[in-house]
Amino acid sequence: MSKFQWFIWAMFGNDEDGIYGDKSFNPEQEESVWMAIKWWLRNPCHNLCFSVIGVPRPFLTTGDYPFDVFSPKGGWNRLNHHSIYNNKNYPFISYIGWCKFYIGWRERGNFGIKLTRNKQ
Fold first, then answer.
1. How high is the mean pLDDT of the chain?
2. What separation in angstroms does the CA of 97 have from each of 5, 22, 64, 75, 91?
3. Are 83 and 45 in a shared domain?
4. pTM
5. pLDDT digits over 46-64, tens only?
6. Which of 18, 40, 56, 97 gets the highest tally of CB atoms within 10 A of its CB?
7. Contacts of 61 (CB under 8 A, 6+ apart)
8. Is 113 found in the same domain as 70?
9. How many whole angstroms separate alpha carbon 95 and alpha carbon 108?
């Protein structure tokens, strides 16, 4: 695979759901270029986040609430994913309050960033 092909795969590919996305949402929807573009806009850089910079499995998660993305009590949740495969730490931090925010490696091993306004 050339560097250009690898770049296209990492930035625009989706090994899990294919270029047309998760068909369970609407199994009869026609596959088209527009549908592939909409799926990529919804989930850009899927292969990059999961396969290139993702946490190699298996890993051990420790922290304030290791099985939750957000703290059930609100406020901060700090986690650490320790990969048994390469003996490295992958941090994750989230906050829920006036906004919902997270950055780091998530529970499935993929890297993610999210910032939304919290509806209260």
1. 80
2. 42, 31, 16, 6, 20
3. no
4. 0.69
5. 778 777 888 877 888 899 9
6. 40
7. 67, 79, 80, 81, 82, 107
8. yes
9. 19
Q: Which domain holds residue 77?
A: 59-117
> Which residue's entry shows tokens 């799926």?
39
List alpha helices for the chain, DSSP H: 3-12, 33-42, 46-47
Residues 48 and 67 in one domain: no
What does the block give as tokens for 63? 């922290």
E-assigned strand segments in 1-120: 59-63, 75-83, 89-96, 99-105, 111-117
Q: How far apart are CA 35 and CA 21, in angstroms?
A: 8
